[in-house]
Amino acid sequence: DWTMGAYREQAIAAIKEQVGDAHVICALSGGVDSSVAAALLHEAIGDQLTCVFVDHGLLRLNEAEEVVGMFRDHMNLKVIHADESELFLGELEGVSDPETKRKIIGRLFIDVFQKYANGIEGAEYLAQGTLYPDVIESVSFSGGPSVTIKSHHNVGGLPEKMGLKLVEPLRELFKDEVRALGVELGLPKSFIGRHPFPGPGLAIRCPGEITREKLEILRKADAVYIDQIRRHGLYDDIWQAFVAILPVRTVGVMGDGRTYDYACALRAVTSVDGMTADYYPFTHEFLGETATRIINEVQGINRVTYDITSKPPGTIEWE
Ligand code: XMP
Questions:
Q1: Could you identify the atom of ligand 1 that is nearest to the CA of residue 197?
Q2: What class does this enzyme belong to in the EC scheme (predicted)?
Q3: Å from CA of 149 to ligand 1 middle
């Protein structure tokens, strides 16, 4: 009789056996996989685990505080908040090509992680939230699209380079099992059920050049949009929802004045695995109400559009 409770005990025993009294470091992204891996390792080895949360300045509103706060203050994990937003945003200045953005972010992510990890005394293991499908994919479609999607989080080659051994406590699990294990470990259901968020973060939701101004506007608009979706009880019916800020200003009227502000696009899709997706059929009432709220509540946006492209031919992200 297989239960998640029994699996948890077995996984904890396996981690203890593998790691012994060595120290483990883990890159915590706030995503489900790395969060559940960190929570499980913490149960198994407590203070022998140190997590590094790399903050690239491309996170959603309050995200860094929420993730770090939850793990550090509520779960008592050792978490280093590596606030390197100045570094990332500086290197991204003037860059508009999507793949160049990804490469810069991926390279800096590894540099930053290494820098902080080197400061942790006696680390012997690197923990990764690799799932069973990742194990299969990296074997069968090596170099294919499913691998590049994960490219940012895939710190392939890093353990050897850093002289670390790997510990991958989720290697036997599928996504839904990881979620169940997370709940079993006491992570909040709302956290476990969060939509996927790409490694390069808001960089790929800001087509064209990234500026601090655009990021700030985008964060606010995204927060209003997600709040609308939650208020209408739609969050769990949607695979992923977000706002993209468009690299164009448009003319509008507000009160007696003319405005010249950014346009944004709302995105929401249903999907099983992110490989194909359908746009979500919001009601016009919902869309109208959301547009009004964003324009009223977010200074810097005066036009809201809804993206009705499915995948294929579109991608989920705008870049
Ligand atoms: P696309 O836009 O390719 O996205 O339809 C499919 C899924 O992958 C996520 N995504 C990424 N995740 N690094 C990531 O970690 C990336 O560079 C990246 N690009 C897309 C996207 O959010 C969606 O869930």
A1: 22
A2: ligase
A3: 5
Binding residues: 29-35
Residue among 316, 214, 313, 303 at smallest CA distance from 264: 303
Structural domains in the chain, CATH included, are 4-192 (3.40.50.620), 211-306 (3.30.300.10)
| Ligand 1 midpoint to CA 26 (Å) | 22
> For 269-315, what is each residue's pLDDT tens digit?
999 999 999 999 999 999 999 999 999 999 999 999 999 999 999 99
300 C-alpha to center of ligand 1: Å?
A: 27
Burial class (CB in 10 A: 0-12, 13-18, 19+), 201: buried
**ipTM for this prediction:** 0.99
What's the confidence (pLDDT) of residue 234?
A: 98
Probe ligand 1: pick from 29, 56, 58, 149, max atoms within 8 Å of CB? 149
Q: Which residues have any ligand 1 atom within 6 Å of their CB?
A: 102, 149-150, 152-153, 196, 198-200, 240, 274, 311, 315-317
Reading the block at residue 106, the tokens are: 């991926």
What does DSSP say about strands 23-27 and 49-55: parallel, antiparallel, or unpaired? parallel
CA 50 to ligand 1 center in whole angstroms: 27
Mean pLDDT of the residues in the chain: 92
- Of 230, 248, 317, 240, nearest in space to 273 by CA: 240
The β-bridge partners of 252 are 259
Atom from ligand 1 closest to the CA of residue 102: 17
The more confident residue out of 132 and 61 is: 61
The C-alpha atoms of residue 301 and residue 313 are separated, in whole angstroms, by: 28
23, burial (CB in 10 Å: exposed 0-12, middle 13-18, buried 19+) = middle
- Residue set of the binding site for ATP: 29-35
